[in-house]
Amino acid sequence: MRSVAVVSLWLVVIAPLAFSCTGVVIAQDDLVLVGGNEDWVRWDSYLWATAPSAGRAYGVVYFGYEIRGEWGHRYNFWYEFHGINDQGLYFDSFGAPCDFPESTMENPRRGAHLVVDAMEQCSTVEEAVALFESSNLEFMQCQQYLFVDRHGNAAVVEGDHTIWMDGDTFALTNFYLSDPSLGGYPCWRYSKVTAMMKYDATPTGARIAQLLEAASHEGTRYSLICNLTEGIIQVSYARNFNHLVTLDVEDLCRDGQERISVPDLF
């Protein structure tokens, strides 16, 4: 098993600050639905979008925050927590128990915003996973990424391991599926949504909303319900799943979108 090494302060802090997020996937009947709860310490989340360009194959819609010292840095910077591109590739970032990804240390370093490269250059989970697995993932010592595409594929990149969806449903919280003993398990949110999907995995936005509401709590800031087949995002704020704002990925990516406050959407 992977050994834990010295970890920089921001990587140590990311896990507890985002240690209760939930992601769910339902892929059947030629439909792919994804949902994610963002559970964090601040309410001031933002939405922005980038258009395709000479150096960017695909447009991307992002949800995230300006990091203001929470991870130990002396400077502010923007960080992407969720995203979906105009090819139907989706990602969600999750805090996880700190563990050193030894197997990638000889790979080239491409930076802590590797997920931006993936979203701008990849159209499938297979392509995104290949990019991550060929990169130095030292920055992922306390996090993992869920990728889902409109073809019904899903995988979580943990660092040393990649776990692929086997079936038509998938769920992720904040423990490593490859080794739950490292921490964060058992998880009531994971148990809740997996049990609910075994009972009813209807591929609709309404069912995804029910799953996310069941896994939400006082720390849930916003929630995303994404139809990857149709390129539609529905946003819920502060656990109000009766009030959803609908966004079209292609429209946002056509010309790009400067950062706007998620609370201001409501």
Describe this structure in words.
Helices cover 21% and strands 32% of the residues. It has helices spanning 9-17, 114-121, 125-133, 188-199, 205-215, 249-255, and strands at 22-28, 31-39, 46-50, 60-67, 77-85, 90-95, 143-148, 154-157, 162-164, 169-172, 220-227, 232-237, 245-248, 257-261. The strands form two sheets. An eight-stranded antiparallel sheet has the order 9-8-7-6-5-4-3-14, with helices on both faces. The chain has a six-stranded antiparallel sheet with strand order 10-1-2-11-12-13. The chain is α+β, with helices and mostly antiparallel strands. The longest helix is centred in the last third of the chain and has 12 residues, at 188-199.
Overview in brief:
The protein is an alpha+beta fold and 266 residues long. It has helices spanning 9-17, 114-121, 125-133, 188-199, 205-215, 249-255, and strands at residues 22-28, 31-39, 46-50, 60-67, 77-85, 90-95, 143-148, 154-157, 162-164, 169-172, 220-227, 232-237, 245-248, 257-261.
